[in-house]
Design brief:
8-stranded antiparallel sheet; Jelly Rolls; single chain; 5-stranded antiparallel sheet; alpha+beta; 13 strands
């Protein structure tokens, strides 16, 4: 791979608590970082296709068009054979849909000052125009936040259903990546950001899917949409 740093995948170890995930620093090749950050800066609010509901996604914008050359090529690699084969091996998931840039959810997310993302579980499946019903299996978030300070907040919080508390926080440092299993796993960054108005919390995001052949979720139950947990704070 050209844009994704191959050296990261030699000794990957799956973390199981509070649920399966991996964290990788220096995920994107540093040679492209300056140009990549410039392309992200070019994604101004007027180019967004989505503005979050203020009750649970305050001041959140999403982008999937107007992407520059580096961003486009990163998404090609994130959905390519080599990278998805790594994901299948690490997370023991077979037949992840690959080489398709039109699946639900891929893009860039930006959250402005005072914004937050309430704790939630992701939607479990959706009907794709090409493949039919798809199960959502994995999220990847690649943080693009230069000089992010601790008092800005914005840590990704992972919730443990066994202990009924947040047991892990992932600081959104520049070029840090987290990949995690999505079904029925609670996550978010629920506290309002405390950042200067001229910056934002931003990430490159992709979701991974497998075909659903039963009409039920992976546990054999009815498929659930997003579920919000407003009372869980970090």
């Amino acid at each position: 791979m050209k844009y994704i740093n191959d050296n990261n995948f030699k000794n990957l170890k799956l973390i199981y608590e509070p649920y399966e995930h991996i964290i990788i620093d220096n995920f994107i090749n540093e040679n492209y970082m300056e140009e990549l950050l410039g392309e992200l800066d070019n994604l101004t609010i007027d180019k967004s296709y989505y503005y979050g509901n203020q009750n649970f996604e305050k001041y959140k914008f999403a982008f999937r068009g107007h992407l520059g050359n580096i961003l486009n090529n990163i998404f090609i690699e994130l959905n390519g054979d080599e990278f998805i084969s790594i994901l299948e091996n690490v997370f023991n998931i077979k037949n992840i849909i690959r080489n398709n840039l039109e699946l639900e959810g891929a893009g860039v997310h930006k959250v402005m000052n005072s914004g937050f993302l309430s704790m939630h579980t992701d939607f479990e499946a959706y009907n794709d125009k090409l493949y039919g019903l798809l199960d959502r299996r994995l999220n990847i978030l690649i943080y693009m936040n230069p000089d992010w300070k601790l008092d800005y907040g914005g840590e990704l919080c992972l919730y443990d259903k066994k202990t009924l508390q947040i047991t892990k926080k992932v600081f959104p440092l520049l070029n840090r990546c987290i990949i995690f299993m999505t079904p029925n796993n609670i996550h978010g960054h629920p506290n309002p950001l405390n950042i200067p108005n001229n910056i934002c919390r931003q990430s490159i995001t992709n979701y991974y899917y497998t075909k659903n052949t039963t009409g039920l979720n992976l546990n054999g139950n009815c498929i659930k949409p997003v579920e919000w947990y407003y009372d869980i704070k970090s």
